[in-house]
Amino acid sequence: MTMIRLRNIWKAYDKQQVLRNLNLDVDKEETMVILGRSGAGKSVTLRLIMGLEEPDQGEVEVDGFMVSKMSQEERFDKIKHVGMLFQGAALFDSLTVGENAAFFLTQHPDLTTHKWLSKKEIDDHVQHALELVGLAGTGAKMPSDLSGGMRRRAALARLIAYRPTIILYDEPTAGLDPVTAMTINELIRNTQNELKATSVVVTHDLRSALEVGDRIAFHHDGRIIQVASRDKFFEIDDPNVKAFLDNTVLPERIVNGRNHA
Ligand SMILES: Nc1ncnc2c1ncn2[C@@H]1O[C@H](COP(=O)(O)OP(=O)(O)OP(=O)(O)O)[C@@H](O)[C@H]1O
Ligand SMILES: [Mg+2]
Question: I want to staple 133 with a disulfide (CB 3.0 to 4.6 A). Which of 26, 152, 153, 161 is the partner?
Fold first, then answer.
């Protein structure tokens, strides 16, 4: 079953044509990675799925809702179960880590029961989310007391606490050292298992793509030019994909059979 369907999407800013006839289908409960160079239009694509922006042409369908034809109000009502980890993963600096994680729950009723949670229930959700990201016991800390990797995990906890069933990640590992990046990739996989979510992960980090993705979509020149399962990605016969791979160095054990001679 298709959860997210992008059809013939065109999007320009002023004179710059960013998306040109972009198409993408994401299946229920899969993790789709969108891989592409900086400036390719990956964040714009996520903002369209999230309903934060509208395409100039084309259709965006999320969980059966044609979000590109809805008013902003209707969109926020119908696709509340879509959560996004924004690029840079900004936390609310004046709130504690725990208050950050509780934020959506204090603003919206529960996604499944449609009832407002009690303070105790919110606390439980927050504790669970913090445990899941390895930040148990840091609820009272301020974001400024955390390292960059911890802040990224706290932002992930804020997302998980809300239990969205469609999760969009914008560059979740950017700017992190390889070890911390690896823990974030693991968290993305754990979150996927725990929430049975449909996920889209935008990245220009090939290693992260291979670790979290069921399928990888290659974004180039305003379109998705190739989609392949993780195992088949290196077999894609496309000059643009090859050029991208040739400029990326990966440790041997992940490359799995690809020869870097
Ligand atoms: N709100 C906006 N107003 C004007 N131009 C924009 C806007 N948002 C994006 N753009 C332009 O669209 C292009 C694609 O931007 P986008 O942020 O989607 O790239 P990206 O693939 O996410 O890159 P990165 O990997 O660096 O995050 C860029 O040239 C950017 O300057
Ligand atoms: Mg971006």
Answer: 153
Residue 250: half-sphere exposure toward Cβ, Cα within 13 Å:
21
C-alpha separations of 223 from 19, 210, 217, 246, 256 in Å = 6, 21, 10, 20, 28
**Ligand 1 pocket check for 43: Cβ under 6 Å:** yes
pTM assigned to the model = 0.89
Q: Which of 11, 19, 43 to mutate to test the pocket of ligand 1 (most atoms within 8 A of CB)?
A: 43
